[in-house]
Amino acid sequence: MADNILELKNITKVFPGVKALDKVSVSIQRGTVHALVGENGAGKSTLIKVLAGIYHSEEGEVFLDGVKVDLRTPYESQQKGISVVHQELKMSETLSVAENVFLGNLMYKGRIVDWKGMRQRASEMLRELGVPMDVTVAVERLSVAQKQMVEICKAINRNCKVLIMDEPSATLTEKEQSLMFNTIRKLKENGVTIIYISHRMEEIFDLSDHVSVLRDGAHIATLPVANVTRDELVSMMVGRAVAHDYPRSAKALGEVVLEARGIKRKGVLNDISFQLRRGEVLGVAGLVGAGRTELARAVLGIDRIDAGEILLHGKPVKIDSFRKAIGLGLSLVPEDRKSQGLVQIATVSRNICMVNMDAVSHGFVMDAARERQVSQEYVEKMDISTPNVETEAQYLSGGNQQKVVIAKWLLEDSEIVILDEPTRGIDVGAKSEIHRLIVDLAEKGKSILMISSELPEIVGMSDRVMVIHEGNLVGEFKRGEATPEKIMALCI
Length: 492
Fold this sequence. Notes:
Strand content: 25-35%
Mean pLDDT: 87
Helix content: 25-40%
CATH class of the largest domain: Alpha Beta
Low-confidence stretches: none
């Protein structure tokens, strides 16, 4: 029999109107990397929250090292050797690296806190992981990759047996991803078991020994990674075959709709000029921190610019606020949909209609019935999976939340749509649907500015690609000319 460090038996978790987990049973072998995959809403996040002690299941049992455990709080879970590095890192930003590593687990000399000993031990752990850093520096000064390493050290310091990593590579550069993957392999060599959650198939096959598939809250299969193909895995995740070809094909483009001339922002953007045509998908490539999002914010009036001008249909316009941009027919689907694109505690219907309240109002009085009707039309049109339009946005999966954000701007009927990482953190099925939505918008004459870190997406979806490096526009490719290799050469 395999040496299982963790066994989940018939785990069931129910939320109002939704069975998030339905008798899920999974066994995790000691000292392995075990991938957990599934579409958004499949139950992955709920399952790891049960293991983390954040949720308590209505049914089922958890066995750790063959012993039944009751994980009712995060503290109990950590004490038993289960730690989580969440996608959205939760750290004390103003405290130092060493203080974060030992938070809630201080070292003492007698009755006195051993600050020197903690700094030395934190430095040792980081060196062992291959990421030496100054442990006296405040965490707020670190990169996302460095913060993840600090979280891993915190887990190791608590004698972690099982480390759960939720989409750890989502916001990392290629170099940072390589560093993190090496760290995961070192942890595995040291006997730590990793439960790895990711939507990126290449990571699953590169890192994992086994993979478990969840769909609609149910366990579909657990297999050795060596015994399954990418297409088979995707088919199990979505319950159907998914076309991997990008749906964008060469199209005749219309007139110039948006033009930026000489956009400058000190230390961020350096004399950037570009044109966006009607019906065009203009891809924006570059490494994290290159200035892609900053360019979008400058165009939309969210951030001030020091020089340059914006033209709409050949006429200069002054856009000094996002409200002004919306009035001129521009919109933004932001990278951080949870905090910037949605009101999490508002309903699906309110989120869809909040920008264009005129569509559901009579004068100053809102028509609640009309709001529900309009939002229901978009839920059906975009195949948004939700119990009903009165469900709060926070209870939807990431892919469905993204569709709600896009629906908001479809109702507003924006002429120019800026998409910042439109498919980040979204499963393969939802990603395919988002791609079809983008193509549909372009074919209806909308103009799309699409920022993406996924080079196959940039190449497959764009009519043109412009590459930004350290605030400079360093190159442009027409459709058919762009390749991931050419783009990356300019990115770096």
